[in-house]
Specification:
- The protein is α/β, with parallel strands linked by helices and about 260 residues long.
- The protein has a single domain (about 1-250), classed as Rossmann fold (3-Layer(aba) Sandwich).
- It has 11 helices and 8 strands.
- The protein has helices at about 15-25, 60-65, 90-100, 105-110, 130-135, 150-155, 155-170, 190-200, 215-220, 225-230, 235-250; strands at about 1-5, 35, 75, 80, 120-125, 140-145, 175-185, 210.
- Helix 1 (about 15-25) packs across helix 11 (about 235-250).
- The radius of gyration is 17 Å and the shape is globular.
C-alpha cells in the first residue's frame, strides 16, 4: 500500500480539489484508490457526490469507538473516500485529543481497513502544522506539497520542509516529496516569476507539470464530479493526466 500525504503550508491553494481530481485520475490506471479527509472543513466528500446534509465521517466513528469501514463510501469514479464528518467544536476537540494521545492512531486505522497491497491512499490535511499533519507524515510514503504561484507560498517553503524533515527524515519507508504548482496563470508576470524561482530553487523536487487555472474545476465541484468526468478536454483535465503520468514515472504509485 502506498500512502501519499497531500499537504500545503498555507490555505487557499486548492489542495483538496487537487487531492480529489488526482485520486480520480489515478483510479483510471487500475487500482482502487482510497482518499481520507483529515481536514475539519470536511469538503473532500463534495467532489464525489456525498449529500451536503450527510454528517457521517471518521470523527463521529471515533466518538462511538467504531471502525472506519462503516463510513467508507464508494464513489462512481473508482475512488473510495472517508469523509472527516460534521462535528461541533466540542466534538472536534475530543477527536483531536484522541489523536494526540495515540501516536499510532492513523497507522492502526489504516491497517484495520485491510486494503489490498497495490492500493493507493491519498490523505488530505489542513494547511500548516497540525496534529493531523503529524499523524499523516508518520505513515506517508510520499508527500505532495501543493503551492500557488504567489509570493506567500514561496516564502512558506522552509517551514514545510522543516516539518517533513522532522517527521520523515529518519523513516526508511518515506521515499520522498515534491512540489506541485496549482492555479497557474501564465498570463500573469508574477505567476511566471514564481514558477521560475521554484524551478530553479527546488530542482528535481519541483514537478514540471503545473495545474493551470481553469473555470471547469469550479464548475465540476458545483456538480460534485471530478473535473475529468465533467470536461474531458479542458486544460485542467489534461494537466491532471500529465501529473498522474509524472507521479507514476517518478513515484511508481501504480504497479
Amino acid at each position: 500500500m502506498r500512502v501519499v500525504a497531500v499537504i500545503s503550508p498555507k490555505g487557499g491553494v486548492g489542495k483538496t480539489t487537487t487531492t480529489a481530481n488526482l485520486a480520480a485520475s489515478l483510479a483510471r490506471l487500475g487500482p482502487r484508490v482510497t482518499i481520507l479527509d483529515l481536514d475539519p472543513q470536511n469538503s473532500l466528500r463534495l467532489h464525489f457526490g456525498m449529500a451536503h446534509e450527510d454528517a457521517s465521517g471518521i470523527a463521529q466513528q471515533e466518538a462511538m469507538d467504531s471502525t472506519w469501514t462503516s463510513v467508507l463510501f464508494e464513489s462512481a469514479y473508482g475512488v473510495n473516500f472517508l469523509p472527516y464528518g460534521s462535528v461541533d467544536e466540542n466534538q472536534r476537540g475530543d477527536f483531536e485529543q484522541t489523536i494526540k494521545d495515540n501516536p499510532k492512531w492513523l497507522a492502526q486505522h489504516l491497517a484495520s481497513l485491510q486494503l489490498a497491497d497495490n492500493s493507493v491512499v491519498l490523505i488530505d490535511t489542513p494547511p500548516g502544522p497540525s496534529i493531523y499533519l503529524q499523524q499523516v507524515l508518520s505513515v506517508a510514503n510520499y508527500a505532495l506539497v501543493v503551492l500557488k504561484p504567489d509570493a506567500a507560498s514561496y516564502s512558506t517553503i522552509p517551514s514545510i520542509e522543516s516539518l517533513i524533515d522532522y517527521y520523515c527524515g529518519q523513516r526508511k519507508d518515506f521515499l520522498g516529496y515534491c512540489y506541485l504548482l496549482n492555479q497557474m496563470d501564465a498570463s500573469k508576470q508574477l505567476s511566471r516569476d514564481v514558477f521560475g524561482m521554484l524551478r530553479n530553487s527546488l530542482g528535481k523536487r519541483f514537478i514540471p507539470v503545473t495545474i493551470h487555472r481553469d473555470e471547469a474545476v469550479s464548475e465540476a465541484l458545483a456538480c460534485q464530479t471530478p473535473v475529468a468526468y465533467y470536461s474531458q478536454h479542458c486544460s485542467a483535465t489534461h494537466d491532471m493526466q500529465e501529473l498522474t503520468a509524472w507521479l507514476q514515472t517518478n513515484f511508481r504509485l501504480v504497479d
